[in-house]
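Tutorial handout. Part one gives the primary structure; part two gives the three-dimensional structure as C-alpha cells.
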Amino acid sequence: MKNKYRVFSILIITITCIAAGLFYFTLAEKVGTIYVDNTAKAINDIKQTFLKHTVNNQIRRIEERREEETSRMEALVQETERKLYFIAESASGQFVPIFEKTFDDEKWTVVLWDVGSGEVLFDSGGISTDWPVSSLPDEGEKFAAHCSWSYGRYSAFFGISKEYSDGLVKKAIAREIHESTFPFDSYIWVNEVVNYEGGPDYAIRRIHPNLKDTEGMLLSTEMTDIEGNLPYLEELEGVKKDGEIFFTYFFKKKNCDIVARKLTYARLYKDFNWIVALGIYMDDMQPYIDKAKAESHALILQLIALFIFVLVSLLILTYALVVVSEKWFHKRSMDALEEKVNRDPVSDALSRRAGEEALRNAFSRGFDDPGNPAIVTFDIDDFKRINDMYGHDAGDHVLKRIVTVIRKHIRTTDHLFRWGGDEFLLLYRGLKPENIMRVCQNLLDAVSADVHSLGGGQETVSLSMGVTYFRETDTDYPDALKRADIALYKSKVNGKNQANIEL
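Part two.
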C-alpha cells in the first residue's frame, strides 16, 4: 500500500511537472515570439532613423554647397567690379575691348551701354532686348551675384546666373553622392521631377550610384517592380502631399543581380525639384532576427529544464525569471544596435547623431556651471591635400590617428564627435572659460607634433578650433554652434593651427 502510494505520488508529481512543463513551454514560446517581434521592430525603427537622418544631412549639404557657391560668386563679382574701375582709369574710353576680354567666360551675363545715347555697346547675354537699358530691374531672383557699374558716360550690368551657380552645385553633389559609402549596402539616389502630375516621362534619373549607366533616363509613374507595385507613383504622391515618405518596393541590389525588398525614405528638395532618397534592403534584418530567435530558444530550453527539476510551487517564480530575462536580452540587443548607430565607423569617434543628442541634453540642463559645457568645433587644416595626395584610405588613417591622439588628452567625462568630413566637435563639461584656451592649445600641440607615415612619406597635420559656451539668449544649441563656427573661421583666416573663442 505504501509502495502504491509512493508510486501514485510520484506519478502525480510527474504528471503535474509534465503538464506544468508543457504549459511553461507554450508560455515561453509566446515570450520568445514577442522578443523576436520586438527585436525586428527595434531594428526597423533604427533603420528608419538612419535613412531619415542621412537624407536630411544630404539635403543640408546641398544647401551648404549653394551658400558656398553663392559666396564665391559674390566675391568674384566684387573683385571684377574693382578690377573694372582700376582698368577704366587708363582705358581712354576703349571699354568694349575691356569688357570683351574681362567677360570672355560663359558664366557671365553682361551689357554695356552709352548713357547719353542709349546705344548698347556690348551684350553677352542678349538681355538688352528684354530691358530698357535706362531702367535695368533688380535681378536678385535670377542671378546668384550681380552688379550695376558706372564710369563717366558708360554704364554696365554684369552678373552670374543662379542657373550657372546651381549647375556647379549639382555637379559637385553628384560627385559627392557617387563617392559616398553607407552601411547596409545602401546608397543615395536622386530623381528630378519635371511633371508633378505624373505619367510617362514625369521625372529624370539624375544620380544613381547603383545604375550609373541609366542616369539621364526618363522615368514613368507607370513603372512596376517584380511584385506589380508602383514605387515611382507612390513616391511622387507622398512627396507631393507631405514633402517626404517612407515606402517599400523590390529593387536590384548593388553590384549584383539579386532583387530584394527595400525600405526607402524620400524627401523633396523643391528648389531643384529633386527627390533625394536612400533605401535599405529588408533581408539585411534577417541575421539579427535569427540570432535573437536562437538566443531566445536556447534560454527557453534552459529554463524549461530547470523548471522541471524543481517543484510545481516554483512555477510562478520561474515565469517571472523568464519575463526578466526576456527584457534583459532585449535591452542588450537594443544597446548593441544603438552603439552601432552612435559610433562613426571610420574615425571611431562618436557620431553626429550622438553629438546632436548630447547638445540637446546639455542645452536643456541650463547654463550654470557645470551644466554649461565648453563647445569646441575643429577641422583638419588642408585635409583635402592629404586626400588628393595620398588617397582617401590615408585620409581615413589620419582621422583615426587624430581621434586617438585627442582621446589621450581629454578626460573620460569629455566627449568627441565626428560632425562630418574632417569636422569634429568636443564637449568639455565643467571646464571654465578661463581654462579652455589652455586646454585647446595642449590639443593643438599634441596633434601637430604627431607624425603620420603616408605613402612612403611623413606628414604632420594641424587643427583650427572654434570655442564657445551657451548663452541665456540662445534659443537652441544651433545658436552656439554658429558662434563656434565663426571662431573656427577666425582661426582659419588668422593662419590656422590655433583656437579662437566667441562668448
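Part three, for discussion. Confidence is low (pLDDT under 50) at residues 322-326, 333-337. The CA atoms of residues 11 and 503 lie 81 Å apart.
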